């Protein structure tokens, strides 16, 4: 159980275009999802917390107008990288919790590797 | 900021137990200790978590010291597929504090 699916797994886009990444909880309802990105040989960095039916909360230094997050249903959150540039090339990973609070594990998708040319 | 300290790397022979230490000296009474691992180019995989008591599941055991300032993740019989980066994370209990903040982790190399 507790499967989180991300799509696409890889995407290549041209500089200046926008890319949408989907994160789905397949067998549970996720009121909260989290978005991370990871540069090569670095750890995961939390970008934002996505709450169903409300605006996302962004971490300090993350541009909310560049990384648009929508969490319209209990099983789907999307991250749109707008006007992508080569420096946005990274591994983007989402996660979702099955319950509420710190006692419920977060489960992660398998990530989306974005390459901006 | 990550609230944990882990050695950057460790080696373990296949079939032996892998004991991964973690220091979390500033942990609060209601914060959990979580362990995840990340195999190259995949999303992190949940391993185990605990609050005060030692925990065991099909993947691993978690030993938390009585003062809760450190813990050890034990993989009882390491295999080559256990080669990964292991993250020890302190996580808050409430809805507003339960984000997972990743540190740099321990890179475990299991060798034949």
Brief overview:
Chain A contains no helices and 11 strands. Chain A has strands at residues 4-7, 10-13, 19-25, 32-38, 45-51, 57-58, 67-73, 76-81, 90-97, 106-108, 112-116.
Which characteristics define this entry?
heterodimer, A: 117 residues, mainly beta, four-stranded antiparallel β-sheet, B: 112 residues
Write the layout of secondary structure elements.
The complex is a heterodimer of chains A (117) and B (112).
Chain A: E1 4-7, E2 10-13, E3 19-25, E4 32-38, E5 45-51, E6 57-58, E7 67-73, E8 76-81, E9 90-97, E10 106-108, E11 112-116
Chain B: E1 9-13, E2 18-23, E3 32-38, E4 45-50, E5 55-56, E6 61-64, E7 70-75, E8 84-91, E9 106-111
Parallel strand pairs in B: 1-9
Antiparallel strand pairs in B: 2-7, 3-4, 3-8, 5-6, 6-7, 8-9
Q: How large is the count of helical segments of chain A?
A: 0
> From N to C, what is the helix and strand string of chain A?
EEEEEEEEEEE
Please give the most extensive interface between any two protein chains, plus how many residues each contributes.
A-B, 26 and 29 residues
- Estimate the strand proportion of chain B: 35-45%
* Sheet with the most strands, sense and barrel status of chain A: 7 strands, mixed
Gross morphology of chain B: globular
How many individual helices of chain B?
0
What average pLDDT do the residues of chain B reach?
94
What class would the helix/strand composition of chain B place it in? Answer: mainly beta
Strand content of chain A: over 45%
Order of helices and strands of chain B: EEEEEEEEE
| Shape label of chain A | globular
Q: Report the uncertain regions of chain A.
A: none
Straight-line N-to-C gap of chain A = 37 Å
Oligomeric state of the chains? heterodimer
Overall average pLDDT of chain A:
93
């Amino acid at each position: 159980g507790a499967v989180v699916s991300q799509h696409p797994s890889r995407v290549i886009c041209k500089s200046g275009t926008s890319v949408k990444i989907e994160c789905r909880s397949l067998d549970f309802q996720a009121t909260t999802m989290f978005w991370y990105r990871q540069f090569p040989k670095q750890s995961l960095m939390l970008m934002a917390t996505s709450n169903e039916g409300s605006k996302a909360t962004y971490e300090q230094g993350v541009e909310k107008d560049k990384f648009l997050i929508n969490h319209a249903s209990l099983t789907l959150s999307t991250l749109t990288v707008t006007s992508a540039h080569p420096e946005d090339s990274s591994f983007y990973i989402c996660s979702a919790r099955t319950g509420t609070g710190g006692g419920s594990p977060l489960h992660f998708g398998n990530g989306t590797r974005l390459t901006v040319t | 900021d990550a609230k944990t300290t882990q050695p950057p790397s460790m080696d373990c022979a296949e079939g032996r137990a892998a004991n991964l230490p973690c220091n979390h000296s500033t942990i609060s009474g209601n914060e959990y200790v979580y362990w995840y691992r990340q195999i190259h180019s995949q999303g992190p995989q949940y391993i185990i978590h605990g609050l005060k008591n030692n925990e065991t599941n099909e993947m691993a055991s978690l030993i938390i010291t009585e003062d809760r300032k450190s813990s050890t993740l034990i993989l009882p019989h390491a295999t080559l597929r256990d080669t990964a980066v292991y993250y020890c994370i302190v996580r808050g209990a409430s809805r507003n504090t339960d984000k997972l903040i990743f540190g740099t982790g321990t890179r475990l190399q299991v060798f034949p």
